[in-house]
Design brief:
CATH superfamily of the largest domain: Alpha/Beta hydrolase fold, catalytic domain
Strand order of the largest sheet: 1-2-5-3-6-7-9-10-11-12
Shape: globular
Largest sheet: 10 strands, mixed
Radius of gyration: 24 Å
Number of domains: 2
CATH class of the largest domain: Alpha Beta
Number of strands: 25
Strand content: 25-35%
Number of helices: 12
Structural class: alpha+beta
């Protein structure tokens, strides 16, 4: 049931039914490959795939901008897929009447140049040049859309922000809005292995290190050779020369640690901050007539769902949509514990096809009659729709109470509960953080009962009726720390009647970043926001209670009758985050009752 979209009434036309009515009409054929020169002379490699290979007709174009090799050369006689990062887009859109153009980003694949940043502003300028090239081709009808997962998805935002008039629709899938907070520093805390593992992936692909590719399942097949040379590079010498230039690419661990705070700049380029490689920085340059469809999942990395929602809340564009499923990063896995074993996969690209059919191909798809937001309620195991975010308007509070209870009644008397941070505690190796580092995860939080039992937990009595939440749960913790800094990890769980603990969601905040602020116009939220700026970072006054109010990552979830809610708190996640503060596990005094009542606020209401 979890991957079914045709149960309930969330859609007038479910994506699977729409896709069934749009069968393939054209063949894919062999791509044409060539170099296109950028304004500075750097040559980018790209593939062009036309329906039936027909350059005599004009087609709308779907543009895929990737740093993960547009196409590999393969061992002779092998039938391995040469485009593991882009074949799904090819096979969805070309047979249904779209030209697909796949580009090796500057400093990657068979393209020349070097990468000076993660999602470099130089790449953004390249995207406009690529769009210019596309509309000048005889097979182009002058309309361009873009889509892709993760890096490719945020590249869609960058493309739209060039203001190119041919760009009519973008579908950023599982993509950040703020690279710093949505990906590398959630809550101001550095994910320690992410930069290291991503660096290994960069070396494996950009440097054509086939020995390193073995650890990444998408690129591990030994029949995949180096990046595919363009058609005129018959001996592959140009592709090899391009790879040599890539040896000068930036290195992620060195680069990302330049930005301890969100307003930190490169010491050699004071104008270059994390905003420079984040889509929100360019929101005012995205034309309002561009249609936008953003997709994410409830276990999509460190904060990609936040990015998807902030994009939706921020953009003033008339045609914008959101899809939030029970998925990990890229919808590789449905992470609901109650997912069915044999159900078909949700056709994410089928939904993107309908979107492009409406806004690129000019088809009447009925999309305008659908609600702009669709989301999946876990444990209810059903899709729901909404006209705005958040989809609920009410809230329900539970207070920390004596004997580690969560109580709907606020305790009158002040009390305290002491928790010492355990720097060995971790959330495991089957979590939301593995997939964004390219590490396989298939059974999410399957050991959560054992892990959460080791944490300080505050639990409600059994629910007398089902409780549905949808949106951001907010925790307000009054605490005093024995150290001038601390990390607070908060986990929400459903404790079933038999005692099984189900991970629902989590949030984290570094205590020095506790000061809240109003979100700027370029970065709208409906949950507590903070600058994470160096000037606003303040050490904790040792032993003095401070309020830490922050949101857990969004989710829609049904707690069933008889289950209990549990808020678990920890001072560390040794499996994913750096120690805070280094070598000084703080003792945290959590206050409850009276004027400093710690609590959790759940988003509830009509769904």
């Amino acid at each position: 049931m979890p991957d079914r979209d045709d149960l309930g009434s969330a859609w007038r036309i479910p994506p699977s039914r729409y896709l069934a009515g749009r069968p393939a009409e054209f063949s894919v054929g062999k791509p044409t490959s060539l170099y296109v020169a950028m304004a500075d002379g750097c040559r980018l490699a790209l593939d062009v795939l036309l329906p039936n290979g027909d350059a005599g007709r004009r087609w709308p174009t779907v543009l895929i901008l990737t740093p993960y090799v547009r196409r590999f050369d393969v061992t002779a006689g092998s039938n391995v897929e040469p485009s593991p990062n882009s074949y799904r887009y090819r096979d969805m859109f070309v047979p249904r009447g779209y030209a697909v153009v796949v580009v090796d980003a500057r400093g990657t694949g068979a393209s020349f140049g070097t990468r000076d940043s993660f999602r470099s502003p130089r790449e953004r300028a390249d995207y406009k040049a690529i769009a210019d090239w596309i509309v000048a081709q005889p097979w182009s009808d002058g309309r361009i859309g873009a889509t892709g997962i993760s890096y490719l998805g945020a590249a869609c935002d960058f493309l739209a922000s060039t203001g190119h008039p041919a760009v009519k629709a973008i579908a950023p899938l599982f993509a950040v809005w703020d690279t710093w907070a949505d990906n590398y520093y959630p809550g101001g805390m550095l994910i320690k292995r992410l930069a290291l593992v991503y660096d290994e992936l960069m070396l494996a692909l950009d440097h054509d290190r086939r020995d390193l590719r073995q650890q990444f399942s998408y690129f591990a097949n030994p029949a995949l050779q180096g990046p595919m040379p363009v058609d005129d590079d018959r001996d592959g010498s140009l592709a090899k020369a391009a790879v040599q230039e890539h040896l000068a690419n930036f290195r992620m661990p060195d680069f990302m640690t330049e930005f301890k705070c969100r307003d930190d700049a490169l010491p050699y380029d004071p104008a270059f901050t994390p905003a420079s490689f984040s889509p929100y920085n360019y929101v005012d340059e995205i034309p309002r007539d561009v249609a936008v469809y953003a997709v994410s999942g409830w276990t999509d990395g460190a904060g990609y769902a936040n990015g998807t929602l902030s994009r939706y809340l921020t953009l003033p564009n008339a045609h914008k949509r959101v899809l939030l499923g029970p998925w990990d990063h890229g919808a590789r896995v449905n992470s609901s514990p109650w997912r069915a074993k044999q159900e078909p996969e949700f056709p994410v690209l089928g939904e993107v096809l309908r979107f492009f059919d409406q806004h690129l191909a000019g088809r009447d798809t009925g999309l305008a009659d659908e609600d702009p937001i669709h989301y999946f309620a876990v444990h209810a195991e059903e899709w729901r729709s909404a006209k705005s975010w958040p989809p609920v308007t009410g809230s329900r509070r539970f207070y920390l109470a004596p004997n580690r209870q969560l109580s709907e009644a606020q305790p009158n008397d002040a009390a305290a509960d002491e928790v010492k941070a355990d720097f060995t505690a971790g959330s495991g190796t089957q979590t939301r953080y593995e997939r964004i580092a390219g590490i396989d995860a298939t059974h999410y939080y399957n050991d959560w009962s054992e892990r959460s039992a080791k944490l300080a937990g505050f639990t409600t009595p059994p629910l007398e009726a089902p409780l549905d939440i949808a949106g951001h749960t907010v925790v307000s913790l009054w605490l005093a720390s024995s150290e001038p800094d601390a990390a607070i990890f908060a986990y929400l769980s459903e404790i079933e009647a038999d005692g099984t603990a189900r991970y629902v969601t989590e949030g984290v905040l570094r205590a020095i970043h506790r000061a809240e602020a109003e979100p700027p116009r370029s970065y709208r939220t409906t949950w507590p926001w903070r600058t994470f700026a160096r000037k606003d970072a303040k050490p904790m006054p040792v032993g003095e209670p401070q309020l830490l109010k922050f949101a857990l990552l969004p989710v829609a979830w049904r707690f069933v009758k008889g289950s209990r809610l549990r808020l678990s708190l920890s001072g560390a996640d040794a499996d994913h985050f750096v120690q805070t503060p280094h070598g000084r596990p703080p003792v945290l005094k959590l206050l409850s009752g009276g004027a400093q009542a710690s609590m959790i606020e759940l988003p509830i209401g009509g769904t």
